[in-house]
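Q: I'm a student working through a structural biology exercise. My instructor gave each of us a protein and asked us to get a predicted structure, then write a short paragraph describing it. Mine is GTP-binding protein. I'm not confident about reading structure output yet, so if you can add a plain explanation after the tokens, that would really help. Here is the sequence I was given:
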Amino acid sequence: MSTEQSDGVPITLISGPLGAGKTTLVNRLLSDPGDRRIAVIVNDMGEINVDAELLADQGEEGIVDLSNGCICCRLQDDLVTEITRLADEREFDYLVVEASGISEPIPIARTLTVGTDETSLPERFALDTTVSVVDAYGFWKAFDPEESLPDAAPDPQRPLTEVMVDQIEFCDVLLLNKCDMVPDDELDAVEAAIRELQPRAEIRRTTYSEVDPGAVLGTGRFDFETARRRQGWKETLAGADSDDSGHEHAGGDDHHGHPAGLSAAEAHGVDSVVYRSAEPFHPDRFDAWLDDWDGDVVRAKGFVWVASRPDTVLGVSQAGPAVQAGPIGEWGDDDPSTRFVVIGRELDGVAAELDDCLARDGEEIPSADADPFPRDS
Ligand SMILES: Nc1nc2c(ncn2[C@@H]2O[C@H](COP(=O)(O)OP(=O)(O)OP(=O)(O)O)[C@@H](O)[C@H]2O)c(=O)[nH]1
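A: Happy to help. First, here is the predicted structure for GTP-binding protein. I'll explain a few features afterward.
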């Protein structure tokens, strides 16, 4: 078996929301493989793997169908087993793994890097590139509370919007697909929002996932630790911490690497606001703020101080309508303070709304037993 890289057969992992264009991309790669002999593993949630059948219709060999489960959770061991079996049975020098639309990429990347408790990936493989395909037309709809999303998440506590945000935050290359369906100015807005979530990936605009195979195969871009750190909100918080741009609202300046003045994101109405406060929130009002989601907040995440838990760091993560908030540690020697980044549209009022959630002098505060945390959606 020949390899593109000295350290193993490279793997490209393709993730992305349902119907974004992942199978279309795999078909493209199979129809234009160049010198590569590509094997494909396709994961689908249903009992019938429609995607694998669509690929098989093309008469390709080396397509393995992993159905009726999700390779980020239930089928992790099967994924490794199938890769091992495929390598024993066939000659190929590139492996493409298409995850189901509801798969979270981080556990799959971990499986493809270090294996699972039960199985380990043969040393002759190496994860090379993680790709997320995102539907430009469906992007804002995913954040629109009026739209009903397909009820297909494996975990009802993890709405698909949240999975989509994970898929955007964790990738080396992002295809912003279905560009034929969206006017250019709207595309600029979607790309600006994605850039806030994902500052480093290469973003390519595509129609029918048309891309040079070299952009997604053999790029050598994947690195697990870097990928984990790539989440936009962390960079935004780090930037806000290192500048001195104010107590409540650090958005709108150059803290996230945009040139001073109007950033691309701001020009399209997408922004990130960093809220900081040395006063605690009233737990009930902050909880109500988290509940009162109007579709403009794409992502909110950070470390929060609530008055009901003076010693506890509350970790808060919101992706679309899904909210998780719970204790993640103690303030210890650090002065308690809230640092919270909000990414979305029309965020002008956010800092004032959050100020309104701060505990007021003399106000009654529930005990930790009676506050709404931890909460999961
Ligand atoms: N108009 C338009 N349609 C597209 C484009 N890319 C893909 N499609 C269509 O969108 C539908 C879904 O594409 P797939 O490639 O099956 O999407 P997927 O991400 O594999 O979908 P799941 O496996 O269900 O998650 C198909 O009917 C495609 O033909 C595009 O750029 N523009």
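A: Here are two points you could use in your paragraph. The first helix runs from residue 22 to 31. Residues 278 and 337 are 5 Å apart (CA to CA). It's a good idea to check both against the output above yourself.
Q: Great, thank you!
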